[in-house]
Request: fold
Amino acid sequence: MAEAQQQPRKLPYVAAITDGVREVLKEQDNAFVIGEDVAGAGSVYGYYKGLLEEFGPDRIYDTPISEEGIMGVGVGAAATGCRPIVDLMFMDFIGECMDEIANQLAKMRYMFGGHARLPVTVLTMAGAGASLAAQHSQSLEAWLCHLPGLKVVMPSTPYDAKGLIIAAARDDNPVFVVLNKVSLAMTGEVPEGAYEVPIGQAAVLREGRDYTIVATGRMVHEALKAAEQLAELGLDTEVIDPRTLQPFDTATVVDSVRRTHRVMIVHEAVRHGGIGAEIAATIQEEAFDYLDAPVARVGAPFSPVPFSPALEAHYVPDAERIVAEAKRQLGL
Amino acid sequence: MTRAIADDILLDLHRRMVRIRLFEETAGRLMEDGKIPGALHLYVGQEAVAAGVMVHLSNDDWITSTHRGHGHLIAKGGAFDRMFAELYGKATGYCKGKGGSMHICNMELGMLGANGIVGGGPPIAVGAAFSNRFRKTDRVACTFFGDGASNEGAFHEAANMAGLYKLPVVFVCENNGYGEFTAQSNHQAIVDVADRAAGYGMPGVVVDGMDAIAVYEAAGEAIERARRGEGPTLLECKTYRFFDHVGVRGMGLAYRSDDEVAYWRTRDPIPRLEQQLAEQDILSTEAAMAVHAEVTREVEAGVRFAEESPLPDPSALLEDVYA
Ligand SMILES: Cc1ncc(C[n+]2csc(CCOP(=O)(O)OP(=O)(O)O)c2C)c(N)n1
Ligand SMILES: [Mg+2]
Reply:
């Protein structure tokens, strides 16, 4: 009989989320999932499907539509010994629970002189491109990165989704896992069992000598497409996915810029005041003498997310816009 | 019926309900056929609530709506061409294609928008009621919200302020038994949302939301009370959505039984009113059918208008961010 060839297992992003949460529930007896329509329905995007059956109603809870209350349960339960996984269905609903996040969750440990531990993992769905209009499409990760005390990760692949969820749940700090709704069907390699994608560690997804693109979330894939096109123009392009926005892997990005001398930052969030501004500032602080061109940024325009697909297509950045901006930046 | 209602009001109630039903059935089909982008939360089954309240309001009275907002706009006089155009994301839509189903609005009709945020409406309605009083008008505000929304802090803060200031606002809770896929018994420990009124110093009234005449009468009292300056009311209408949470068939989750849906369909508010009106010789079966036929033509014309309308120009993207 021929040797059974071990094929790497491929899963869609949505199932990788499930797999990550499953590993956490197996590994941590004091972890539970709580949120709107997470148990019976398995979430509106289906990423908790099967967990109620597998772990029972003591480990996964449907709640009323009460985001502030839900986040408060996360804070209070974490401070007293649990490791909650809080589901915030759409990132836009952060408004409903921002006090719990900004004034309680992020600051409690510090205000208490270090006498509290808040191991809360928040899973939330961001991203435009699904014609869901202004209140169901936002990428608000910059709001979170502005709050000392929180960690923020943004998985762009199924592998990272699972690994970052596990790392987040093992972390003793509040960690927001910002997921992307348009990526849910995207497939990729996802090993069985528990593994971590370390928080604070970027991934170099494509190496290049001439140009660096730092892209977050779904924009990573647009950046990789753009890198192909730029290669045809003779620009050997490196693509870096920070994966964690807070704490940020400055070393990996700065090291790349010192070699390539030119850099662009791409994110789906509104460009103005986005995390790209912080990254650009860091680059000029750390690598000013190495830069041969101003740091470029691509992000959404300064408007709410429009409903009409005809407008939304011009809203969300894509490979074409990245290439155009690179040409402008470099005078190509 | 406790008091005689003029025939023209009954006919008006009927037409408003039929307009909602036929618009929504077509919109649902168009969404599931992929012609309308995004997500539609359809109002079919709940028509008696929107119609029964809106018959009492003029264009100067404000309403706030929900994610399930088409019915509210239609009952307030929304035009099908502009509405379908909005759902299609066309430049001729009520929001120039920028809002879509979840933000559809018409300020001239006194409709302060559908809302993608559950519980988003009540505080805004309290603000509109405050404004009505501040500007010394006798106008009222009505805020529609679901059983699920009654668990949001925003609802409670709004209700408390309305009770405290005795504002001219009516809180219309459309209790359809579910917030998405979670049954009411799994999201709150009470049966009647109207019980919550006691905590805010306002009357709480429960009415059969599948009975247009009952809603009409109860809403009339609450709205008159508000107009007289006697303060808010929490009016809970027990109702049901016949379609899934999103779309018609939706996600196909088994969160409610076929028997339950079938039972509520026997309580369909439209045939019920039609029967009542036929018995009283106010609207014959033929005349009712004529209303359906007329509205069907209105739906067809609306869809045609939407399909023939232009998409917004990309230059519109940055318009209307600021005044
Ligand atoms: C603040 C907020 N939380 C959650 C959601 C997701 N969501 C949309 S509709 C809905 C259920 C609302 O239930 P209910 O208020 O009873 O209205 P119904 O859908 O039954 O008309 C939920 C949870 C949302 N849109 N906004
Ligand atoms: Mg409901």
